[in-house]
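The passage that follows is intended for readers who have already worked through the single-chain material. We present the inputs for a multi-component assembly, then the predicted structure in tokenized form, and finally a short commentary. You are encouraged to pause after the input and sketch how you expect the pieces to fit together before reading on.
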Amino acid sequence: MNNFEDLQNKWQNQTTVSATDYGFKSLLKSVKAIEQKQQTGNVVLTITIIILVAFLLYVSGYKSTTFLLGIGLMIGSLVVRIAIELYSLKRLRSINFSKESNTFRNDLTSYYSFRKYTHFIITPLALVVYTVGFIVLLPLFEASLSHGFYIYILCSSVVFLVVFSVFLYKQIKIELNKLKQLQLDDEAINL
Amino acid sequence: MGSKEITYQKIYEENYSKVMRLCMGYTVGDESLAKDLTQETFIKVWQNLDGFRNESGLSTWIYRICVNTCLAEIRRARKKDKNLQIDNLQVSDSVDNATEKEDMLVRLYECINKLTSTNKAIILLELEGLPQLEISEIMGIKHEAIRTRIHRIKQQLTKCVHNE
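Having made your guess, compare it with the prediction:
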């Protein structure tokens, strides 16, 4: 195996970037920024929940069943979607990167399998429920808003739906590719 | 700086080069992407430092984080495969045979890239000169199985580099 030892020698002698004081300071900055970002994220989420609850309390005074049904479907689907995203994030963060690589791979595969289930069932369902809620509200919008503003709301919601669907599609594609790659590798391990 | 930060700096300085080299192997010599992965690895080191219990050696622990970080970033690395950035690889050697060695290093990177990500990790650790027992602890694969596998990958890699 002299040939391999030769390769090993070349590998170990290649010039690589070394640690610098500046690099460490920049790393420490990133570490602190991530911790700060997580705290900011929690604050933003708390504020969002407070606004949603306040809005629900505000609209609960309305006697229109159609309005309550429409708004309930829209907010309900959003809340379910946010809750699932938060649960996913929690699950992803709980994956221990210092575990043996085999166990880590299984944890990661299980996470992406869960995401696949979310993407194929819950996300489309949430999107449909959100759209239904919006459609239920349309007659009310038409009756209470000016024609121009009604058309604007109609058009912008279609644009939003298309943009959001494209964004979701891309996200799903990335995650499914990761799962596929992990499973391909898994098959190679078991050969 | 607090005591955690001082320990962290020591870990960073002592392990940066080997983590970077491993990441370079994963990214087919793309230095910029390897730097990102190295940074990501050390961020995970910081986040898990309080949980480090000396059950495995520090080096084994860091290699695990590095291998797993690279594994989690498979997609990003694969996407870059189309533009292999291995033109600027350098070997510290005399000018006479440096070019020949650099060519071989480029070929080595290309051949490593043909392996599955697990085999890639195993052979990169072997190239680093880690004992096979430590590689088996990092990968979570039995020592005997690792030994057989390393033997097979070594043969594949040597053949590939020499265009056999």
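Commentary: Helices of chain A lie at 2-13, 21-59, 65-93, 101-144, 147-189. The mean pLDDT of chain A is 85. How closely did your sketch match?
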